[in-house]
Amino acid sequence: MSSSLLNTLIERLRVLPTVGPRSARRMALHLLQSDRAGGLKLSQALSEAMEKINNCQQCQNFTEQTLCTVCSDSSRDASALCVVENPADVDLIELASGYQGRYFVLMGRLSPLDGIGPDELGVEQLFQLIRSSGVEEVILATSTSVEGDATAYYISDQLVNDDIKVTRLMNGIPAGGELEAVAGSTLKQAFSLRQTFPAD
Amino acid sequence: MSSSLLNTLIERLRVLPTVGPRSARRMALHLLQSDRAGGLKLSQALSEAMEKINNCQQCQNFTEQTLCTVCSDSSRDASALCVVENPADVDLIELASGYQGRYFVLMGRLSPLDGIGPDELGVEQLFQLIRSSGVEEVILATSTSVEGDATAYYISDQLVNDDIKVTRLMNGIPAGGELEAVAGSTLKQAFSLRQTFPAD
């Protein structure tokens, strides 16, 4: 490239998932030729998000406050806690299910080969939250992948001596599936038909 | 989303071509979870590129100087001028062909339906450059799409009364193809076998 700034931009764009050298070049040229204002706004949104977004002290979800909007909403039902893998799962459930309880976001799932164990997911914080805040039902909404199932079993196992109902979204989520790939109506049904976990 | 900064980032990412709402969300979450340093570097590269990259005063290619590296290189052969559609085409030719002349980058091609006429491509500047700087051969390396051909015909038509050889890359580029999709070896051959245009 004739411009070293352009080279740098193309290289930096490759931090984005699924963006290879050719798409990075297309993206950079598109912004320079047709949408510099949009490029500048993206730059600002990126730096603000990277610098100011942290994890909710209660549920680990992304927020720029100490507590996220769900955790700081006193009208939510504190007796139900839904455990999900990702922030995107919270959005999907909020949009689709009418669920009024709270969440805990693991920011991943157990995956020993990738070095992700219970500590990396913050499960100690999860158990503290469950035991200290009057949670009566823990809804395990991790994915139905092998790792998502293992994560659900691990959590339910640790709660077996607590007087807490542990359920898992069962009906409607295809085996091996990510929550993200499930239609809203299916998710709603999966919520209303959730089953005791492990099965009786 | 629980974070308005995150919402803003997801929305802003959609200025990138081919990025829809779902990929934008994946990109944002990936950066927040796994690569904040990369996100900040991307932010900086974006703002620098958008603010500092302009068009070379001679050939229109992107550069952060007044003249691009090719135009400011006095060892290049000023008697040959290769006309391309995009900055990426310059890179491809530089890498593949051994061409030692100069370039003019149209930053597009004639496309009346999109409102892109000769003025938008800077052809007046092109003709001035050709007539004022001792150019002996103009190599039309626009794409072989309908619009790329039309652009080549338009330029050659305007030069018909000048004592200038006008050639067009002919051999090896598939009909309807973009220069970008052509292998380096094909491009090299196309260069060495370039033909007088329009054909005798």
UniProtKB/TrEMBL annotation, chains A, B:
Record's keyword annotation contains Hydrolase: no
Protein's name according to its UniProt entry: Recombination protein RecR
Function: May play a role in DNA repair. It seems to be involved in an RecBC-independent recombinational process of DNA repair. It may act with RecF and RecO.
Keywords on record: DNA damage, DNA recombination, DNA repair, Metal-binding, Zinc, Zinc-finger
Gene name, Swiss-Prot/TrEMBL: recR
Family under the similarity heading: Belongs to the RecR family.
DNA damage found in the keyword field: yes
Domain of life: Bacteria
InterPro entries tied to this protein: DNA_Rcmb_RecR, Rcmb_RecR, Rcmb_RecR_Znf, TOPRIM_dom, TOPRIM_RecR
Domain Toprim residue range list: 79-174
NCBIfam families: recR (TIGR00615)
Zn finger residue spans: C4-type: 56-71
